[in-house]
Design brief:
Elements (H helix, E strand, L loop, with lengths): L2 H13 L1 E2 L8 H7 L4 E4 L7 H18 L3 E7 H11 L8 H4 L14 H15 L9 E6 L3 H15 L1 H11 L9 H9 L7 H13 L1 H5 L9 H21 L4 H24 L5 E4 L2 H4 L6 H4 L5 H9 L3 E7 L2 E6 L8 E5 L7 H7 L4 E5 L4 H6 L4 E4 L10 H5 E4 L1 H4 L2 E5 L1 E2 L9 H5 L11
Parallel strand pairs: 2-5, 2-6, 3-4, 3-5, 6-12, 7-13
Antiparallel strand pairs: 1-9, 7-8, 9-12, 10-11
Helix pairs in contact: 3-6, 7-8, 7-12, 8-10, 9-12, 10-12, 12-13
């Protein structure tokens, strides 16, 4: 073992807090959070039960002990709003599974899984038990893929409060009709001049709603009390999504930055709506969105992300928590729009943080990086870090799923769960149930 690696392992062992499901094990993290208003909880994949479960537990403690009033997630705004209405007792959905029914776009397992159902059910019960008149905890989406669903939501709102304004909006959004629901086809055609851009129409619609905010918000007192805010956010999403789909054919970095900027813009709007000084938000997204991009290979190439932007705006009022694993199983697809598969996660590559954590010999542990001078010093060297999204390609893992990072600058704390298992989709296919053949099949050696 190289001298530097031995020093790193020694530092990890001396600072590692072994964790189980016990609240007591996470006391160092809760102390780090303190009165911070933004706790960003990551995941190293979009399909690992242990990440979802642990993240939900921490969020429950933040809500009960720290007064957190919102959970904002890497999901589409209108789909999450249906969940929000359910957890606040304002929908007709019978249960948490039904409340998640709008999550129909790939990858459905990312939100339609047993861990999310459990958390949503818990949040509904928690809100139901609050004293009358208390602020109920909300569940909100930050992403921008739902261009058409959001446009429909804007029209539904305006149809109820101002039919003439609805007609103007319908005319503007008709700009997309030629492409049906195929937003990427629109982006390609608009980018290369094969079709008229809808940019002016969607921006004008947003501007009109913002100018008439007070009037529209007071049109009908029988609506959802957040109705105008929800509609305005949908109009903002349409405007930003239109830019995003055009940018996909210009620059990968540009489209990434637009998406993360939209998520932070939505977060800011949500905080202002809930109470700029009092709102506390737990934010769920992939490590690649929540770890400070400036400490990664992506940041060096010009990408920014949610973690960086929130940290820049709110400083130590922000806590960034990353998750890592060494091996296990994961729910992922082999290609975009492909079926959910239960895949084996290969043992972490040598030279990665995950491999280093495995070598420390503590199965599951928490590391507090902020303020730990020696630990941060030895974990701030550039090393490999793994990221599995909705697609996992183990045969090309080094190229597809690893990047360089300086962990101690990327996160304030890291939770390492050495062997993890796949998240369980609500809609299980025979392919998922079968899992992946071991590498030694058919010899079993």
């Amino acid at each position: 073992m190289a001298q530097n690696e031995a020093l790193q392992i020694r530092a990890i062992r001396e600072h590692a807090h072994a964790v189980t499901d016990s609240r007591r094990d996470y006391e160092p993290l809760m102390e780090l959070v303190g009165n911070s208003r933004f706790t960003l909880l990551g995941e190293a994949s979009h399909g690992t039960h242990d990440f979802y479960h642990t993240r939900a537990q921490i969020t429950q403690w933040l809500i009960k002990e720290k007064g957190y009033s919102a959970v904002a997630v890497e999901a589409d705004w209108p789909d999450a709003h249906r969940v929000n209405r359910y957890v606040q007792g304002r929908s007709d959905d019978a249960d948490a599974v039904e409340a998640l029914g709008s999550f129909k776009r790939f990858p459905t397992w990312m939100w339609r899984n047993t861990d999310v159902v459990e958390f949503v059910a818990w949040l509904r019960e928690y809100n139901d038990d609050l004293p009358e008149g208390s602020r109920k905890v909300g569940f909100y989406g930050l992403d921008l893929y739902s261009l058409h669903a959001s446009a429909r939501a804007v029209l539904d709102f305006l149809d109820k409060v101002d039919p003439e304004a609805a007609q103007r909006a319908r005319y503007r959004y008709a700009c997309f009709e030629h492409f049906g629901e195929d937003t990427q086809a629109y982006g390609y055609a608009a980018r290369f001049g094969l079709s008229k851009s809808c940019e002016d129409e969607v921006v004008n619609q947003l501007v009109e709603m913002q100018k008439r905010a007070a009037d529209l918000a007071n049109r009908d007192g029988h609506l959802d009390p957040d109705a105008f805010f929800i509609a305005e956010q949908n109009a903002r999403l349409v405007a930003n999504a239109e830019r995003y789909y055009r940018s996909m054919f210009e620059s990968q970095i540009g489209s990434w930055n637009l998406r993360d900027q939209h998520m932070v813009e939505t977060l800011d709007a949500l905080v202002n709506h809930l109470g700029a000084r009092s709102a506390k938000v737990a934010l769920w997204a992939h490590n690649s969105h929540l770890g400070d991009a400036r400490a990664t290979q992506m940041g060096a190439s010009g990408e920014l992300n949610v973690g960086q932007l929130v940290r820049q705006r709110h400083g130590e009022d922000t806590v960034l928590v990353g998750f890592t694993t060494h091996t296990g199983t994961v729910t992922a697809a082999s290609n975009w729009d492909g079926p959910a598969e239960r895949k084996r996660v290969r043992a972490a590559l040598s030279g990665s943080y995950e491999s280093l954590f495995h070598a420390a010999g503590v199965s599951n542990f928490l590391l507090i990086l902020r303020g730990a001078t020696w630990l941060s010093g030895v974990l701030n060297q550039e090393m490999l870090e793994r990221a599995i999204g909705v697609i996992y390609l183990p045969e090309s893992e080094r190229v597809s799923h690893y990047f360089q990072a300086r962990l101690a600058n990327q996160f304030d704390a890291v939770i390492h769960l050495d062997e993890t298992r796949a998240v369980e989709p609500l809609e299980r296919t025979s392919q998922w149930e079968a899992g992946e053949f071991p590498e030694t099949y058919p010899f079993a050696v």
